[in-house]
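@channel sequence for tomorrow's demo:
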Amino acid sequence: MTSAPIDPVKLDKLARVAIKVGLQLAEGRDLLMTAPMSAAPLVRRITEHAYKAGAGLVTTIYSDEEATLARYKYANDKSFDKGAARLYSGMAEAFKANTARLAISGDNPMMLAGRDPDKVSRANRANSAAYKPALQLITGFDINWNIVSYPNAARAKLMFPNDSEEIAVGKLADAIFKASRVDVDDPIAARKEHNANLKKRWSWLNGKNFASLKYSGPGTDLTIGSADGHRWKGGASEAKNGITCNPNIPTEEVFTTPHRLRVEGTVSSTKPLSHNGTLIEDMQARFEGGRLVQLKASKGRDIFNRVLDTDEGARHWAKWRWYPIPPRFRPRVCSSTTPSTTKMPPATSPWASAMPIASWAGRTSPRTRSSPRAATPPISISTG
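structure tokens (generated this afternoon):
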């Protein structure tokens, strides 16, 4: 008899961390959760831990891949200009009443591959407009919120194509558990230690106050200027409702705001971008004056260009992330297809043994290590 591909003990630890650390759910508070149907085992464990923590009411909204595909197969054309406005308005009202938000990420990244790009784009645009009232309360950090991951079988087979589905799911689950730091005896203590390490990194960056960073490597020659008065942050953060939460589990990022007019050059992605069921591969973007002026991709370029045409701000660099990946995670969790030869920062730097990764729109470019040289001038980062 073979063992289950997803370790139930580690899955339960992930659920407990999501409630105790991710959300720090307070007694009497309600919880609104969204998840794909395939993630029901994690939903049930999170629900259990939420009620043990004293939750008032836990409500889960499930998404179903087959139902989504049925829309693209059978719905009339006008359907793709409609969003679930009443549903999202209800979610916004719940958030205004201080309901916590938890999302489980575990959708099929290829779900809409081969579907009409125009319909996909219109549906995404309509959904974004409908979701805006609720999303503003999340992105504005009005409430405590958290995202955790669950191993989707389709995603697992993309990552481990030479393994059977069962083995692939098991490998992806182990990677998620490891990156989420629930593969240890005390995952809550591990998360606190990780937050302390991230704080050292963003505090160091704030102390240096770099004017800009320059990234160079295969397909990448990019300078990102810092916004005036920018501040770095990462890990645990206090929401406006006074609750300190960890929005993303797993996370290795520290982030800040770039100047919207000070991004120049070209950046290439070493990993595919999954956007609402469509895979976009081999992206290369060129920026002038902070604006994306040219996008190339071997697959999915039209879909991404439609996303960028949603509004003017979509073509500007909105968030700037560095990912200091500890050595224990490098082989599987955030590997790069581009070999690099890099210099380690001084051992006294909090970036020692860390691996920053540049990010545009939340996606990775060639992995690099930092080499800080001055307190205020630009910092240059290269891969060979």
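heads up for whoever presents: Confidence is low (pLDDT under 50) at residues 325-378, 380-384.
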